[in-house]
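Project outcomes to date are best conveyed with an example. Our students and postdoctoral researchers have been running inverse folding experiments weekly, and each run begins with a structure described purely in tokens. The record below, which covers 391 residues, was selected by the lab manager from last quarter's runs and is presented without edits.
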């Protein structure tokens, strides 16, 4: 057994969809002034799934480069965090485990608490690798965000998966022990089992998020956390990127700091590049913020990064990580930019068709049209079973 002193994110890779809808196209269709999208909520485009993509194909595509780089011998746990689950019983992670050819000596589970699930997965994973630092845990955060067509939430849809290899002596980010928690029973956003689209009270959800920021920060202080001015940057959950700015302003005010616009831009500005183009990827969003920060910031070695993970309903956690010396050699910046650039633009009519696509629930054979050019595809359903293919 190694004498590991630190635990955290050893590698991080993400994948997003085949298609993209620009907010300009959405605004042209629904008559919204484009400034509301570009400035008001801070979104430029949203990732849109092909008919043969889902949380499994995205999750497998995100994780495959990690397995290619590190192998899978040490992975004895896969935690799949999602709130857009495809089955009430079977973990989506088992399909990914199969597509990636992981060893059978492995536990695989799915975890849910709205957008917060991946942070629970990360913290649980750290607990496991602390117990046995020779093991690694593969955490996959994968979501497809869907609201009703023509609803206020529609402009905040998106889809992506982030895969993280959690290990002792990580190469990217050490996660610190102190962690601030906050749970409150609120109905700001939810999705009953019989619905494919989420229900949301938009303004209440923003308020609930801000309350959770203050609540988790308070607990973080009580748990011996760092002070605000120690942080180089803050990665917030970004249902839309403007929310990160709102949240940070709220935190600064709450903590009695001046909320100068330039300071807020400095703390948040480099975390939004991927989410502004991908949209809300729910569990993956806060880790896409981290990817954008690491890819764009000047050297962050040994600098603390604040994380605020929020999941409606609600649970929030504030915690900190520090970038590890040499982390820049392990980044996947070119691949990250390529994942965003490879998406094919769809017009509004095509987007609506894709939004309304679903499988009949009759147990028959229903192959999907070949649309995605990604490494994995959902080939169809047959006898109520989903069939996946690797290319
Ligand atoms: P809305 O009613 O469409 O928009 O809802 P609005 O009227 O509130 O306007 C939005 C902003 O645009 C405002 O700025 C306007 O002033 C501005 P703010 O006052 O907020 O600073 N605006 C303009 N700016 C420039 N030029 C213009 C212009 N016009 C207006 N011409 C809302 C917006 C976000 C509520 C809606 O999209 C929604 O319901 N989204 C879904 C819910 C959501 O994302 N909530 C966020 C917090 S909850 C969360 O993060 C959890 C979640 O990810 C789920 C999970 O945990 O699983 C959602």
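After processing, the design step wrote out the following sequence:
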């Amino acid at each position: 057994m190694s004498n590991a002193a630190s635990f955290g994110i050893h590698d991080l890779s993400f994948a997003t969809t085949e298609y993209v809808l620009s907010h300009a196209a959405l605004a042209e269709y629904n008559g919204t002034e484009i400034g509301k999208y570009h400035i008001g909520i801070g979104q430029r485009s949203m990732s849109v799934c092909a008919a043969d993509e889902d949380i499994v194909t995205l999750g497998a595509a995100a994780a495959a480069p990690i397995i290619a780089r590190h192998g899978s011998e040490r992975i004895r746990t896969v935690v799949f965090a999602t709130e857009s689950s495809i089955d009430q019983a079977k973990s989506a992670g088992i399909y990914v485990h199969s597509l990636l050819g992981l060893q059978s000596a492995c536990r695989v589970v799915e975890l849910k608490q709205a957008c917060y699930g991946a942070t629970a997965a990360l913290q649980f994973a750290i607990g496991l690798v602390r117990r046995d630092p020779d093991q690694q845990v593969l955490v996959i955060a994968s979501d497809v965000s869907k609201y009703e067509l023509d609803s206020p939430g529609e402009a905040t849809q998106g889809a992506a998966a982030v895969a993280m290899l959690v290990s002792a002596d990580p190469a990217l980010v050490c996660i610190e022990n102190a962690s601030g928690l906050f749970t409150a029973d609120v109905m700001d956003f939810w999705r009953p089992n019989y619905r494919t689209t989420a229900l949301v009270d938009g303004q209440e959800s923003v308020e609930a998020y801000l309350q959770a920021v203050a609540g988790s920060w308070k607990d973080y202080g009580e748990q011996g956390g760092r002070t605000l001015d120690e942080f180089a940057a803050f990665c917030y959950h970004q249902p839309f990127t403007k929310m990160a700015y709102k949240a940070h302003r709220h935190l600064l005010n709450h903590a009695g700091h001046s909320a100068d616009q330039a300071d807020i831009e400095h703390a948040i500005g480099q975390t939004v590049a991927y989410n502004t183009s991908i949209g809300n990827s729910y569990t993956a969003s806060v880790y896409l913020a981290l990817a954008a920060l690491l890819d764009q910031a000047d050297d962050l070695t040994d600098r603390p990064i604040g994380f605020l993970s929020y999941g409606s309903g609600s649970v929030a956690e504030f915690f900190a990580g520090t970038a590890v010396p040499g982390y820049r050699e392990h980044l996947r910046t070119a691949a990250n930019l390529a994942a965003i650039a490879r998406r094919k633009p769809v017009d509004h009519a095509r987007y609506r068709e894709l939004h309304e696509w679903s499988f009949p629930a009759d147990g028959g054979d229903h192959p999907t049209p070949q649309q995605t050019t990604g490494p994995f595809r959902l080939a169809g359903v047959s006898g109520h079973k989903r069939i996946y293919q690797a290319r």
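The pocket of 3-hydroxy-3-methylglutaryl-coenzyme A is lined by residues 33, 35-36, 39-41, 83, 114-115, 152-153, 155-156, 188-189, 200, 202-203, 205-206, 209, 237, 239-240, 243, 280, 282, 310-312 (CB under 6 Å). The CA atoms of residues 2 and 133 lie 6 Å apart. The training component of this project remains on track.
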